[in-house]
């Protein structure tokens, strides 16, 4: 698997980002958690994927030169802490076609979420309108009166009922900001690590009976960010119209969290 190497001199951060799919028109990457998709309106100096990619094209970095790239634009966004599939267009014409596809909600997006709470059904839907929070900047909320239509389908993949956790497959049928996160909070299933919407970190000490920490060491959460991963994107190709399916492997922190939940739930 090829990777695109990006770095931010300002913050001394470095990323090796796997390429998940590529042809003459599209580039799909596996966005790491902890990297913005595009500039933060409140802090434009924070590193973000699109700014780093554009800088690489401008500086003719090897990955850009090899591909003869002079244009890249994102067709959708992933939250700062969300990992997984992100799709980019290599031309303005393809971007317009992708924008139409995403606007018509044609792409099928599948996410994984690790949640805390009691689940009564193996499959369920949440249909709750969303709007920006009137006071808290950057937050969204359920707003039955003035919100925009928002719907998400959920399926339980694994239930760690001994500890009150579950791994869910999430399929958003609309594309609102923070949609999956708020819909899960709305039904009492906040995502692990999602402190903005009531989720708490996952600690090994809560799972393992005889957990002992070495003297002078501080316990770190098994997963400290929002436990949400964009695992799959399926859509008709904007040029050929053939169905394209793009998948991203589970990130290491999610693998570790689920491994320990499986191990101690027995």
Name a few traits of the molecule:
single chain; about 270 residues; alpha+beta; Alpha-Beta Plaits; Pseudouridine synthase; 2 domains; 11-stranded mixed β-sheet; two-stranded antiparallel ribbon; 5 helices
Protein model, in words:
- This protein has two domains: 1-104, Alpha-Beta Plaits; 106-266, Pseudouridine synthase (2-Layer Sandwich).
- Helix content is 18%, strand content 31%.
- It is built from five helices and 13 strands.
- It has helices at residues 49-58, 62-66, 92-103, 179-186, 252-265, and strands at residues 3-8, 13-22, 26-31, 73-74, 83-89, 108-116, 123-127, 130-132, 140-142, 151-160, 165-172, 228-236, 243-247.
- Strands 1, 2, 3, 4, 5, 6, 7, 10, 11, 12 and 13 form an eleven-stranded mixed sheet that branches. Strands 8-9 form a two-stranded antiparallel ribbon.
- β8 and β9 (140-142) form a beta hairpin.
- The longest helix has 14 residues, at 252-265.
- It is globular.
- The two termini are 35 Å apart.
Concise account of the structure shown:
The protein is 18% helix and 31% strand.
**Helix coverage percent:** 10-25%
CATH top level of the largest domain is Alpha Beta
- Low-confidence residue ranges: none
Compressed to H and E, one letter per element, the order equals: EEEHHEEHEEEEEEHEEH
Coarse structural class? alpha+beta
Q: Report how far the terminal alpha carbons are from each other.
A: 35 Å
Specify Rg, calculated over alpha carbons: 19 Å
Beta percentage is 25-35%
**Total DSSP E strands:** 13
Q: What's the name of the CATH homologous superfamily of the largest domain?
A: Pseudouridine synthase
CATH topology of the largest domain: Pseudouridine synthase
CATH architecture of the largest domain: 2-Layer Sandwich
**Average pLDDT for all residues:** 92
Summed up, the helix count is 5
Taking the sheet with the most strands, its summary is: 11 strands, mixed
Q: How would you describe the shape?
A: globular
List the domain count as a whole number.
2
């Amino acid at each position: 698997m090829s990777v695109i190497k990006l770095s931010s001199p300002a913050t001394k951060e470095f990323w090796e980002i796997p390429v998940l799919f590529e042809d003459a028109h599209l580039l799909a990457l596996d966005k790491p958690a902890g990297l913005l998709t595009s500039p933060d309106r409140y802090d434009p100096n924070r590193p973000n994927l699109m700014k780093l990619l554009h800088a690489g094209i401008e500086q003719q970095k090897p990955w850009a030169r090899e591909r003869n790239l002079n244009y890249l634009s994102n067709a959708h966004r992933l939250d700062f802490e969300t990992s997984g599939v992100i799709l980019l267009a290599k031309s303005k014409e393809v971007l317009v076609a992708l924008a139409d596809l995403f606007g018509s909600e044609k792409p099928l997006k599948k996410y994984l979420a690790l949640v805390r709470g009691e689940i009564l059904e193996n499959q369920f839907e949440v249909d709750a309108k969303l709007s920006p929070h009137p006071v808290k900047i950057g937050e969204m909320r359920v707003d039955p009166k003035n919100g925009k239509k928002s719907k998400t389908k959920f399926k339980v993949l694994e239930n760690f009922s001994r500890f009150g956790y579950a791994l869910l497959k999430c399929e958003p049928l609309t594309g609102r900001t923070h949609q999956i996160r708020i819909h899960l909070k709305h039904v009492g299933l906040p995502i692990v690590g999602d402190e903005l919407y009531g989720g708490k970190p996952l600690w090994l000490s809560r799972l393992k009976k005889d957990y002992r920490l070495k003297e002078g060491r501080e316990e770190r959460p098994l997963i400290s960010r929002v436990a949400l991963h964009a695992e799959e994107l399926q859509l008709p190709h904007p040029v050929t119209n053939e169905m394209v399916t793009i998948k991203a492997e589970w990130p290491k922190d999610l693998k570790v969290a689920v491994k320990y939940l499986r191990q101690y739930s027995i």
